Amino acid sequence: MFLIHCPYCDEDRPEIEFSYAGEAHIARPQNADAISDAEWSEYLFIRENKRGIHCERWWHTNGCNRFFNAVRNTVTDKFIMTYEMGEPRPTPEEIEAARDDD
Amino acid sequence: MKFSARSLFANALTGHKNWPEQFPDKEPEKQYDVIIVGAGGHGLGAAYYLAKKYGIRNVAVIEKGWLGGGNTGRNTTVIRSNYLYDESAAIYDHSVDLWDGLSQELNYNTMFSKRGVLMLAHNIHDVQSFQRHIHANRLNGVDNQWLSREDCKAFLPILDISERPHYPVLGGALQMRAGTARHDSVAWGYARAASQIGVDIIQNCAVTGIRRSKDGAVTGVETEKGFIKANKIAVSAAGHSAVVMAMAGLRFPLESYPLQALVSEPVKPVMPCVVMSNAVHAYISQSDKGELVIGAGTDQYTSYSQRGALHILEHTLMSICELFPIFKRMRMLRSWAGIVDVTPDRSPILGKTPIEGLYVNCGWGTGGFKATPGAADLLAYTIAHDEPHKINAPFNLDRFTGGRLIDEAAAAAVAH
Fold it and tell me: What is the pTM of this model?
């Protein structure tokens, strides 16, 4: 079971308090009536499914009940960092600096 | 060498020391007609059918690890075809049809046992949904029948049908043609039969890239053992399918999750069938060796780690002890996880891709083992004809753009 750091509670809490909420930084297209089926499909269904460094959303359902983002290595399952919703995707350099998983 | 009473007797006289190698591990040639990425049951089976049915024998199956070491060797061996939609019933029932003579066809005992799969209903929604499934199945010629609570008890005496459990049993849907098979032997049987008719099986050779010509068609794969040329490449890499497809520049509607299973100490025969309970997440059968084979739900996050969290197993075991109080003091021997590639509609993707010469068989999620012979046969057909068979035509990649999903996720109404 993961220990996940909620950036709002600023505490490490067990995974059972959280719900995984999929890949992060996917914005709903604002012009849904203008875009093609392929673009809509890309938004709805296509995912990075990254083997390695993955940005993802978590929801602290049994805690503060807020969504936040996390960077996790999907090969080792180690969390590299978590950050508040609305903050930009960390740069590769920032992720590399925060890594201590290998 | 063919397995028979005579060959068994002859080899007994020499202490079983002279059996030939079943599936020799080959070094890659420079060029093949078809390369299949992934030596699980699906990939090995596709190679076998390509050689056997379509005469395409210059085929290599390339595997990153060892043969049958991925999800083929990690599943809970359940075989069934009681799916709701017409397309699903057709593809899974095609597979059950092939399971039925597979041991004879391969001259290798797959230990397919039609012991029945009983799916338990625990609430009114389950009852209505299962009865809908039964009616839909019957219209599609797939056997499935309703058992009342008392019928369930008569069929499976160790089941607790009292009001005591938090989610009591209200009845169940029983498919008698369903059952289990020995998962390793399916991979070994296909590997042996395929290599006997000319297929090369290359293990410990990860694919690192897919090379394409200027006009976009595939020309071969880069591997740890060098470049191998082929104008037709089929990817059947289960949880890692998206990783391999990305090498060809394709993005797929797949997410890979850990799925765990565990087995108990072996005991005398006590479970006559497979029991599935989607509502409380309990999947259990008994192997011929006597171990209880238990499947859990997926972990909630995407991962390639091939391990999952203990609380998922605890959740499943709690449910099993509620349904079968007799198992409360059983000890579990080992647990493991496989990485399953899940599509948005929980139906597979089996067919051509936008790239010429590149074929795919992926997205089987938590239920790929049962489909092994069917998927293999249909993948071989698709490669040989360069167009899908009518059974796998609906399972194309385009459905995620066109919108014609085969939504077994909604039909099952459970988290997979």
Answer: 0.96
Which residues between 353 and 372 in chain B have a beta carbon less than 8 angstroms from any beta carbon of chain A?
A: none
Q: Which site among B254, B304, B314, B340 would you substitute to test the A interface, given the most A Cβ atoms closer than 10 Å to its Cβ?
A: B304
Residue B339 confidence (pLDDT) above 90: yes
Rounded Cα–Cα distance for residues B359 and B351 (Å): 6
User: What angle do helix axes B183-196 and B41-54 make, rounded to 10 degrees?
Assistant: 30
pLDDT bracket for residue B412 (50, 70, 90):
low
Report whether CATH 3.50.50.60 matches the domain B5-74+183-253+345-402: yes
Say if the Cβ atoms of A47 and B255 lie within 8 Å. yes
pLDDT digits (tens, 9 = 90+) for B107-131: 999 999 999 999 999 999 999 999 9
The domain covering B117-176+255-341 belongs, at the CATH homologous superfamily level, to D-Amino Acid Oxidase, subunit A, domain 2 (3.30.9.10)
Q: DSSP code of A90?
A: P
| CA–CA gap between residue A99 and residue A96 (Å, rounded) | 5
Nearest-CB residue to B254 (from A22, A41, A49): A49
Domain limits of chain A? 3-28+37-98
Residue B25 burial by Cβ neighbours in a 10 Å radius (0-12, 13-18, 19+): middle
Which member of A41, A56, A74 has the closest CB to residue B304?
A74
Tell me how far apart the alpha carbons of residues B228 and B30 are, in angstroms, rounded to a whole number.
Answer: 5
pLDDT of residue B222: 98
**pLDDT tens-digit series, residues B9-40:** 999 999 999 998 899 989 999 999 999 999 99
Give the domain A3-28+37-98 fold: Folate-binding fold (3.30.2270)
Nearest residue on chain A to B253, judged by CA atoms? Answer: A46
Greatest C-alpha distance within chain B = 68
Outline which parts of chain B fall under CATH 3.30.9.10.
117-176+255-341
- A53 vs B116: CA distance, rounded Å: 43
What is the distance between the alpha carbons of residues B267 and B248, in angstroms, rounded to a whole number? 48
Probe site for chain A from B255, B301, B303, B346 (most A CB atoms < 10 A): B301
Neighbouring C-alpha atoms within 13 Å toward the C-beta of B287: 19
For B115, the token pair is: 């012991």
